[in-house]
Recover the amino acids of this structure.
């Protein structure tokens, strides 16, 4: 390819990281729920979509992006709590497929609901005022908003890491994922922990929705393709490994971006090729433990 | 099974919603069911073109209503049977076959996306059912895909992309980069733009192809910026166009190049907002703002506004109206619903439904019509529907179309 410069490669890398940020966030939420509850949440993309709609809606009502950034995860998180309590909970102990089918159905209910409320065209999303335009990053001009996206993602990931690694709640979550029987015996109400983890996962999905909304169109079907990509990320990273989700998310973003530069028409395929290669070499994913599907 | 139930509910919702304003019509329909003229209307109600497809249905329902209100054909009323193609050529073929075999439709009008209309055309061709296509394609008029039963109400890429090339290359420059959806529509748009560009000495720096339904284009943009073209041509449609335009704006591409779209969609612009589309120039078959200069556009808009709470029809919506209207008008002229008689009536039809005089070229049944060049505006908008400035209207002429011989037709 002619005109390939160091600057272009750097730009492409940065673009890939911004792209991967959203993948990482979504996969992190998926992975928390799977690692803890053993539930493959097929409604995760729908929560992402609801988050985007709520974000744009609250932004319209309040006129303040930061305010809607706080409000949106509360709504999707609350929705997640209700989902776990009334829909997912009765299905525990019935294997993987029951909650999988349930959340799959739920995602269609949420999509239809947004269609009824906001219409099929979706909503125009806007970039918040202070984050419009581009900024010189040394090797070219990059949209300010996407830099903010990278920073916000880093902050959220740090927050989740802190919660799991450094707090008492995190200890319970980790212990619960390792051996729920023992945790129960120790007197912890494991049902409440599951409830909160599911809510947290959905809150993160909603948060990624609002964070992604200024970069793309907000419409009822927006959660479908990105869900497939997030599952690829989760599988590449290793099922149930939060670190794997983050690393694989960024990796998928960068692979997609680099493929786009050299073979644009293969960009979509590239992440599935990556998944196939990783699975051939490490069937449990980059950071997964063998037999995680147990 | 689940899929089927969902389709039916959606269908009911759409048809029900669309005709809510004309409840008495349903009573008429119920009594004259066996006798109605049935028009099958396959279109992608779900997926990235759903906004355009829903508008097609709304406008087609208006054409049906006008026909029925005027007494129909010898008392026979018309009826629209809408089916969701899901933007999938296979699904489109199945639905069309079902419409013909099971629902016994008299005609097929509709479709959106080059690939689905070709598959619908193949089915109609084989079953000898008249199909009036309302989506852009060049291939459909070429001898190998065409049949005497094929009509093409929409513009085709040669006409739209050609007009946009003729407008923009002299004004903005000759170095061109394409960002192209990797399917029939995208490829045909590039070919037509290059064809018109060649005469003006334009050169293509790159044709970057992306998968249909991509939501993030950022990965393609640094390279486009580095190539530094005079004109970036967005050869994609629906939400793809929306996302691409938005992200090109975010990455600051407009500061160094002009962005044009062979088809600049009203619906995408509405959903994307003024900022994302600011200054983008493109071609269209219809914009409601034509009503200031064309009386039939005014009449069409007013009827649409009355039926749908003051909203105005979109470009592809208007095609739904014209597509159905042409067929029904020809039924009246032919005094028959027999396909070949209607075909010959349509071949001789001179009509002006909504955008000025039109007719179907004899050899390939392509509707000869004007192409409107519009620019998206972000200032001085009267209301939310006021999104484009009309820059120029490329007049109706067969000169800008590929000749019948070029398409492989003998006549």
């Amino acid at each position: 390819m002619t005109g390939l410069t160091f600057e272009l490669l750097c730009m492409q890398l940065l673009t890939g990281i911004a792209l991967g940020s959203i993948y990482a966030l979504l996969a992190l939420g998926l992975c928390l729920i799977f690692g803890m509850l053993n539930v493959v949440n097929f409604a995760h993309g729908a929560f992402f979509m609801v988050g985007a709609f709520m974000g744009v809606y609250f932004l319209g009502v309040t006129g303040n992006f930061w305010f809607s950034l706080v409000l949106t995860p509360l709504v999707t998180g609350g929705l997640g709590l209700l989902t776990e309590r009334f829909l997912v909970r009765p299905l525990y102990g019935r294997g993987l497929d029951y909650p999988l089918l349930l959340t799959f159905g739920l995602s269609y209910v949420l999509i239809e609901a947004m269609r009824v409320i906001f219409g099929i065209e979706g909503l125009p999303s806007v970039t918040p005022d202070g984050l419009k335009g581009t900024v010189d990053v040394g090797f070219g001009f990059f949209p300010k908003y996407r830099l903010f996206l990278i920073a916000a993602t880093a902050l959220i990931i740090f927050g989740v890491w802190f919660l799991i690694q450094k707090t008492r709640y995190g200890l319970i979550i980790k212990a619960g994922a390792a051996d729920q029987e023992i945790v129960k015996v120790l007197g912890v109400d494991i049902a409440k922990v599951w409830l909160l983890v599911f809510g947290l996962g959905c809150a993160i999905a909603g948060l990624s929705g609002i964070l992604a909304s200024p970069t793309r169109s907000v419409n009822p079907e927006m959660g479908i393709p990105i869900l497939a990509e997030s599952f690829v990320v989760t599988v590449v990273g290793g099922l149930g490994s939060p670190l794997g989700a983050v690393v694989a998310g960024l990796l998928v973003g960068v692979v997609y971006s680099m493929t786009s530069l050299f073979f644009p028409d293969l960009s979509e395929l590239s992440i599935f090729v990556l998944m196939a290669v990783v699975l051939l070499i490490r069937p449990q994913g980059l950071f997964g433990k063998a037999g995680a599907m147990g | 099974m689940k899929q089927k139930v969902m389709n039916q509910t959606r269908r009911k919702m759409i048809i029900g919603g669309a005709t809510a304003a004309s409840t008495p019509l349903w009573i008429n329909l119920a009594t004259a069911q066996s006798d109605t003229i049935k028009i099958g209307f396959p279109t992608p109600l779900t997926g990235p073109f759903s906004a355009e497809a829903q508008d097609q249905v709304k406008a087609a329902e208006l054409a049906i209503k006008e026909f029925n209100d005027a007494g129909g054909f010898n008392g026979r009323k018309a009826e629209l049977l809408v089916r969701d193609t899901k933007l999938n050529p296979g699904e489109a073929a199945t639905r069309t076959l079902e419409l013909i075999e099971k629902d016994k439709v008299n005609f097929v009008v509709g479709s959106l996306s080059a690939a689905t209309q070709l598959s619908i055309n193949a089915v109609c061709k084989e079953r000898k059912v008249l199909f009036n296509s309302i989506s852009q394609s060049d291939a459909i008029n070429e001898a190998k895909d065409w049949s005497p039963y094929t009509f093409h109400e929409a513009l085709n890429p040669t006409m739209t992309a050609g007009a946009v090339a003729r407008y923009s290359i002299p004004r903005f420059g000759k170095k061109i980069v394409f960002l192209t959806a990797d399917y029939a529509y995208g490829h045909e748009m590039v070919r037509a733009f290059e064809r018109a560009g060649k005469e003006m000495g334009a050169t293509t720096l790159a044709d970057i192809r992306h998968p249909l339904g991509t939501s993030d284009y950022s990965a393609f943009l640094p390279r486009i910026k580095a190539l530094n073209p005079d004109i970036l041509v967005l050869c994609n449609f629906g939400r793809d166009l929306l996302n691409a335009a938005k992200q090109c704006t975010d990455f600051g591409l407009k500061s160094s190049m002009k962005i044009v779209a062979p088809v600049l969609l009203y619906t995408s612009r509405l959903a994307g907002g003024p900022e994302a589309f600011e200054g983008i120039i493109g071609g269209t078959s219809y914009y409601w703002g034509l009503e200031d200069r064309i009386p039939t556009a005014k009449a069409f808009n007013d009827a649409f506004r009355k039926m749908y709470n003051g909203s105005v029809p979109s470009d592809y919506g208007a095609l739904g109206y014209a597509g159905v209207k042409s067929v029904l008008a020809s039924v009246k002229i032919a005094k028959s619903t027999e396909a070949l008689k209607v075909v010959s009536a349509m071949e001789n039809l001179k009509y002006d439904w909504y955008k000025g005089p039109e007719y179907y070229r004899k050899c390939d049944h392509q509707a000869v019509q004007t192409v409107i060049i519009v620019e998206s505006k972000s200032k001085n908008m009267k209301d939310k529907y006021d999104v484009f400035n009309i820059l120029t209207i490329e007049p109706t002429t067969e000169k800008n179309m590929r000749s019948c011989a070029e398409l492989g037709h003998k006549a």
In short: The longest strand of chain A covers residues 134-136. Chain A touches chain B at residues 3, 5, 7-8, 11-12, 15-16, 18-19, 108, 120-127, 133-134, 140-143, 145-146, 215-217, 219, 221-222, 225-226, 256-257, 260-261, 264-265, 267-268 (CB under 8 Å). Chain A has a mean pLDDT of 91. Residues 164 and 170 of chain A are 4 Å apart (CA to CA).
